[in-house]
Design goal:
Distance between the termini of chain B: 59 Å
Largest interface: A-B, 17 and 13 residues
Distance between the termini of chain A: 57 Å
Number of strands of chain B: 2
Helix content of chain B: over 70%
Low-confidence stretches of chain A: none
Structural class of chain A: mainly alpha
Oligomer: heterodimer
Strand content of chain A: under 5%
Radius of gyration of chain A: 17 Å
Strand order of the largest sheet of chain B: 1-2
Number of helices of chain A: 3
Mean pLDDT of chain B: 82
Shape of chain A: elongated
Order of helices and strands of chain A: HHH
Structural class of chain B: mainly alpha
Largest sheet of chain B: 2 strands, antiparallel
Number of strands of chain A: 0
Shape of chain B: elongated
Number of helices of chain B: 31
Chain lengths: 106, 738
């Protein structure tokens, strides 16, 4: 099997690296769109881990992959919603810089 | 070279441009010079590798297709889903080899030309990244051995075309055109995807070798689908849907003329060498399936109608690039029609020669546009004066007499136009078009006559274009100041012009008098042997002897169109009127058919119809939905809120009952309560209030502290969440027993 040449740990390292990049992106950037992209990155890191575990722990079943696909669908919906929010913020506040938006407080 | 090395070469062909794309995007996009060099190196490597493949394939046509060579070691396992394993391999037969050679040569020329055309554009790096990806995707689509991988590369091309047509997205028309191209081609792609699903569900594989061998295909032709239609027919029609979108056949041709909004090298890349050919290539690949199905007449009809329609519309266009766009649609119609009547070898040949002369024409047109823009700058400096802001460098009505100002461009454009209209014996277009017409003569007279008339129209609009652009006297002051483009733009034109002539000699049929015996190489024979077809078709192709009638008729019509156009427009251009009035319009209104000219200018109202049928209803539906949202849903919410606030209209009756019935009861209860309250007041004020106030004070103080975290700034919340997660993880690590 082709996959045996790459050990599980590598996938997990890649997943963790992606996740950390995502976290960094969410915390350190000021642009809302980039923040949403970073959130997507974190989601993808999780999907990668899921699929890797599915492959290595129970390769015969598709549960992990099915979860992965559902996560992708969710992520797509979430991105669409997030971008719609960004657009609506752009319309009302005329900016997508998070530093300049403080309408979350009641 | 052994088979293993060749396989590696085939794998590496698309790698060069794809790698260039990755490197430019991720690394060097800040340096325009380095980006350009990378893109050029990428396509050049692909060119060298393609030439190696082509020479090997010509010597041994079955080298990279025969089944024993397709076994393991060549195919990479891609993914496994359930019991199915998807694998990607490479397969290169003569059609692929020829197409690879064509794509890499034309792309290299376009890349070199772009050096000059995009000079000084701030988005140069991005441009070279996109066109590298585009070229890589095209090469990938050619070398892979299954429809699924082909579809993926096909879609990458679609995305690139979206990005490149909308490259100057600052202009509204550009991004609208990009969106239109994307949506219209996706309409075709949806059908194609359905076709893939159908084929996969029936055959269980998507590899060319598994799908398109005679046994599978004839089995598919006998499997009924719905209402007497066989699976083969259905699948062929669905795949053809993809071709209709990609190769701009009726009725999905509307995106291609608008795609002229992109930079001119992109027009050459999309409309000549790559994307539009991919649609025809798909049909060539699927030819065994087509042949077994009943879909062939559909191809013949769609192709022929498209060829005639586009040639008629091209007569009335004023934009220099739009004429070429419609001419491309028309020529693609030729290829599809040729496939529909069984002349697949001629179709392949026309695909190759057309790529060269159409790339040449587009790039020469780009050179003309460049020259016109130069003239405009010369006249007005960089500040655009009032009233000339809508100067259109593409408008042929403003040109004229450019032959003396841009001699190299004029000569190469002339060669391209002659090749397009099939000037006898010396041009490549003649040999490929003649081959299609000869086949049509043999198998379908109606297709033959339609295509021959189209050849006449083609000659006429080619001559019209040359007359309006290059001959006579300049019709505007800008044209007076136009100047030849630089060497880096002119050199590719010259090279492509050489190809536009010499390439035809490869395809001179064996039976042709005199010349047929002189030429040692017969492209068409080779192609005929490299596609697996049923026995009847193979026999029909090889058994032909030379017939002179179609040749004479096509020469008569082609030359007739050219000469007529030459006669009309060289005289017209010499007059240099201020007011532009096309002789075609004059002739048609003289015949009381002015409506026909208007219809031609408006491309027979396809865009208007689609606007009315699809675009406006969609937008209207969206508006209606927004209205539902605003009025009805918001209205319900608001009326509930105001109802409970006591100002609504739902509650007055309840209020009346309230006042008269319940008030009495409540007052009675109130009186009793009041006396009780008098007693508790004493307890309350001293005992309980003290406690409550203490709590309230505490809460307020706490609130003042907590409130500081509620800044309303998103990053603060995120940081808080991050800190809490850290704390929780730390707690988990500390206290949890693993």
């Amino acid at each position: 099997m082709g996959a045996s040449s790459v050990p599980l740990a590598w996938y997990l390292i890649l997943g963790s690296a992606l996740f950390c990049i995502g976290v960094y992106g969410v915390l350190a950037t000021r642009n809302l769109v980039v923040i949403i992209m970073s959130i997507e990155l974190m989601l993808n890191a999780v999907v990668l881990d899921l699929v890797a575990f599915a492959r290595f722990i129970e390769p015969a079943r598709v549960t992990g992959k099915a979860f992965g696909i559902i996560l992708y669908a969710t992520a797509a919906a979430e991105a669409a919603l997030g971008l719609a929010l960004v657009i609506s913020i752009w319309r009302t506040e005329n900016t997508v810089e998070v530093e300049e938006i403080d309408v979350l407080k009641g | 070279m052994n088979i293993r090395d060749l396989t590696m070469v085939a794998w590496l062909v698309p790698a060069g441009p794809l790698l260039a794309f990755v490197l430019i995007t991720l690394g060097v996009h800040r340096s325009r010079g380095l980006s350009r060099v990378l893109a050029l190196v990428g396509i050049f490597v692909a060119l060298v590798l393609s030439m190696i493949l082509l020479s090997e394939v010509v010597r041994q046509p079955s080298l990279l297709t025969s089944l024993e060579n397709m076994q393991d070691g060549k195919r990479l396992s891609w993914f496994r889903a359930g019991v199915e394993e998807a694998a990607i391999g490479v397969q290169v037969d003569l059609v692929d080899g020829a197409a690879l050679g064509m794509v890499t040569i034309v792309c290299l020329m376009i890349f070199v030309y772009s050096l000059g055309y995009m000079h000084g554009d701030p988005k140069t790096s991005r441009f070279f990244a996109y066109i590298s990806l585009f070229a890589g995707a095209m090469l990938g689509a050619l070398v892979v051995d299954n429809l699924l991988a082909f579809f993926i590369f096909w879609e990458i091309m679609g995305t690139c075309s979206y990005l490149l047509i909308g490259f100057w997205w600052e202009r509204e028309s550009a991004y609208k055109a990009a969106l239109k191209a994307f949506l219209v081609t996706k309409t075709g792609d949806a059908f194609m995807l359905l076709g893939l699903v159908l084929l996969y569900s029936q055959v269980g594989t998507l590899s060319y070798a598994g799908l398109f061998d005679q046994a599978t295909v004839s089995k598919l032709a006998q499997t009924p689908f719905i209402g007497g239609v066989s699976v083969a027919t259905m699948a062929a029609l669905l795949l053809f849907g993809g071709t209709i979108g990609k190769s701009a056949q009726l009725p999905l041709h509307v995106w291609l003329p608008d795609a002229m909004e992109g930079p001119t090298p992109v027009s050459a890349l999309i409309h000549a060498a790559t994307m539009v050919s991919a649609g025809v290539y798909l049909m060539i690949r699927a030819y065994p399936l087509l042949e077994a199905s009943q879909a062939m007449p559909v191809l013949a009809v769609v192709g022929t109608v498209t060829a005639v329609y586009a040639a008629v519309v091209a007569l009335a266009q004023r934009d220099i690039k739009r004429v070429l766009a419609f001419s491309t649609i028309s020529q693609l119609g030729y290829m599809v029609a040729a496939l529909g009547i069984g002349a697949y070898a001629a179709s392949v040949f026309h695909l190759i020669t057309h790529a060269f002369f159409k790339a040449l024409l587009f790039m020469a047109a780009g050179s003309v546009i460049h020259g016109m823009e130069h003239g405009h700058h010369q006249l007005h400096g960089h500040a655009v004066p009032q009233g000339e802001a809508d100067f259109d460098p593409n408008d042929m009505a403003l040109m004229g007499g450019l032959a003396f100002r841009m001699p190299v461009t004029a000569i190469t454009f002339l060669i391209g136009s002659l090749s397009l209209s099939g000037f006898p014996l010396v041009t490549a277009g003649f040999w490929s078009k003649d081959e299609i017409l000869a086949e049509a003569w043999r198998s379908s007279p109606s297709v033959f006559w339609a295509l021959t008339v189209t050849a006449g129209l083609t000659g006429f609009y080619a001559a019209r274009q040359i007359g309006l652009v290059f001959l006579g006297a300049p019709r505007s002051r800008v044209a007076v100041h136009a100047r030849e483009s630089g060497a880096v733009m002119v050199l590719p034109l010259v090279i492509l012009a050489l190809f536009s002539i010499s390439l035809g000699w490869l395809g001179i049929p064996r039976e042709f008098p005199l010349l047929g015996r002189v030429v040692p190489f017969h492209f068409m024979d080779l192609i005929s042997h490299s596609i697996s077809v049923g026995e009847d078709a193979a026999k029909a192709l090889t058994g032909g002897s030379f017939v002179w009638q179609p040749l004479a008729l096509s020469v008569l019509f082609g030359l007739g169109g050219l000469v007529a156009g030459w006669f009309v427009y060289s005289r017209y251009s010499a007059r240099a009127d201020k007011e532009f009035r096309d002789p075609v319009e004059g002739a048609l209104s003289y015949l009381h058919t002015g409506w026909l000219y208007r219809a031609m200018v408006h491309r027979f109202y396809f865009d208007e119809a689609y606007q009315a049928l699809f675009v406006r209803p969609t937008l209207a539906l969206a508006d209606a939905m927004a209205l539902v949202d605003h009025r009805i849903i918001d209205g319900i919410v608001v009326s509930f809120a105001s109802g409970f606030g006591g100002r609504g209209i739902i509650l007055p009756a309840a209020r009346a009952a309230d006042r008269h019935l319940w008030d009495g009861l409540v007052n009675a209860v109130g009186a009793v309560s009041r006396s009780v309250a008098q007693v508790s007041l004493f307890l309350d004020t001293d005992l309980i209030d003290g406690a409550v106030n203490a709590i309230a004070r505490g809460t307020r103080t706490l609130g003042r502290w907590v409130r500081r975290t509620q800044t309303g700034h998103l990053p603060d919340y995120l940081w808080n969440a991050f800190a809490i997660v850290l704390v929780l993880v730390a707690a988990l690590l500390l206290f949890h027993r693993f």
